[in-house]
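Bit of a strange request maybe. I'm writing a small parser for structure token strings and I need a real example to test against, not something I typed by hand. Could someone generate the tokens for this chain?
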Amino acid sequence: MAQKESNAGPLLAQFWSDLGIKYQHAYGDDAGLVKAVKTWLSYVSPGTSVLECGCGTGVPIGRTIADGGFKYHGIDVASGMIEVCQEQVPEGTYEVVSMLDYDPKTEYDGIVASLSHFELTPKEHTKMARNWSQWTKLESHLLISTIIFEEDLSGHASFDAEMECAAGLETMFMGNKIIITLFTKEGWRRLLEGAGFEIVHTEMDMFVPKVEATPDEPRYYIIAKKRVQV
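Reply from user aminoacidic:
Good idea to test on real output. This should exercise your parser:
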């Protein structure tokens, strides 16, 4: 099927920069996410280097990683988010760059992407999965925090049966309507296995944002191990 152009770009970067600390007030107090991050870090060798794709304000993920004694590097397309992150997790290093354009100079021992991939098209998700694989060492671990909607995506006009995903879905986020791509659980398995990962742990959790006009989020956490080089 034909796939739309990316939703990412200067307007998206500005959108996230404008949110800044407001995003943390709504999403920073997330016990389920902290639990998932700590579970993922238990798979990563202590003191090694980890990357967060879409680091946002650094809370709670960056703070949890740094407090665990890991070397933390965060990237984000929004300069406003990076500024907040530098203040809240000064131990880390940062770059203002889209995850689609990032060109690391090292291999990481772990990567986390939490709720930062929704604006990507299905084709860009495939590219990112391969990027995650290329940026990590063999036997390293990836953490994905995403959302699984309960309704049957197969009825959506843009549903891709091969990739098990639907693009162009509208949802409310902090009072704004945004366009996202969602994968089914099977879709995530296919996507990650195609990039050389094997899923070793999953869990579900319901998160209730502290902001109006944003629906409750059924979170799906995936920890995957890089088994082969692609």
